[in-house]
Design brief:
This protein is an alpha/beta fold and 256 residues long. It has a single domain, classed as 3-Layer(aba) Sandwich (Collagenase (Catalytic Domain)). It contains 8 helices and 8 strands; from the N terminus they run βαααβαβαββββααβα. The strands form 2 sheets. The protein has a 5-stranded mixed sheet with strand order 3-2-4-7-6, sandwiched between helices. The N and C termini lie far apart (47 Å).
Length: 256
């Protein structure tokens, strides 16, 4: 039977902690630098939002060759960050490509190991860094009716399942690929910022009790599910935005 309507869930995993590789274990300085970027999801929310500790942000965007994000999505993602974060010394996105790991579909443990092997930037001085991996495949537990678009899995780490996003964008009436990429990037990064109630305290009761870590306000960026079919949440190619309650949470924790 043809599937004309389906849900794409933006899931996250919160307490995945993977030890450093053998090479890093032999380098105390490298090991110490990496430790600050291997903490639980949401634990760096204030550090990302405010300028109290870090005055600049660098995004290390690592893509499998041939699965790089669109320029439109990268630019929109940076604009989203500039609107929400206090980083007076600027936000930089560094992009590079790497060969495929040939391990798709992925478990989150496999994604963590890929990060261990490909991440090169860590927090230094007043600069905080975030690692974003664009994978050439899907998450291992995807089904025909439910797929994962991205996962935030450490305090400064997230993966975008670009292979899945590209498949979704080819379905009838689906939004543009750049729209799906932007929505996924913004949603997963908002988990790094502690939304919803995973590091950034609630200022009002808006957490979805059926989907922890997500917002119960309809059409908010942090809803647990984004519906594709007749358009993203009925908004066509418009990217969902954070609702007022999510923004209030971020502002109370040091953000704009």
């Amino acid at each position: 039977m043809q599937i004309t309507k389906f849900l794409a869930y933006l899931l996250f995993s919160s307490f995945i902690l993977i030890s450093c590789s053998d090479d890093d274990d032999n380098n105390p300085l490298s090991n110490a630098l990496q430790a600050d970027n291997q903490r639980p999801l949401g634990s760096s929310a204030n550090a990302l939002l405010s300028s109290n500790t870090f005055t600049s942000l660098t995004i290390e965007m690592v893509s499998v060759q041939g699965f790089e994000p669109t320029t439109t999505a990268v630019n929109a993602f940076k604009q989203f960050l500039e609107e929400r974060l206090f980083k007076p010394d600027g936000i930089t996105i560094n992009q590079r490509s790497v060969p495929s790991s040939n391990t798709a579909p992925f478990s989150i443990e496999e994604i963590s190991e890929i990060e261990n092997n490909t991440r090169s930037l860590f927090n230094v001085g007043d600069e905080i860094t975030v690692y974003v991996y664009f994978a050439d495949g899907s998450r291992e537990d995807d089904t025909n009716v439910q797929v994962t678009l991205g996962t935030a899995y450490r305090n400064t780490s997230m993966v975008i399942y670009e292979g899945t996003l590209r498949q979704l964008s080819t379905r009838p009436n689906s939004p543009l690929l750049s729209t799906i990429e932007t929505a996924t990037l913004n949603h997963e990064f908002s988990h790094l910022l502690g939304l919803v109630n995973i590091g950034t305290p609630l200022q009002s009761d808006h957490e979805d009790q059926d989907a922890n870590g997500h917002c119960n306000v309809q059409s908010c960026l942090m809803e647990a599910a984004i519906e594709f079919g007749s358009g993203m949440m009925g908004l066509g190619d418009m990217v969902p935005e954070l609702d007022a309650q999510c923004i209030a949470d971020l502002q109370a924790n040091g953000g704009r």
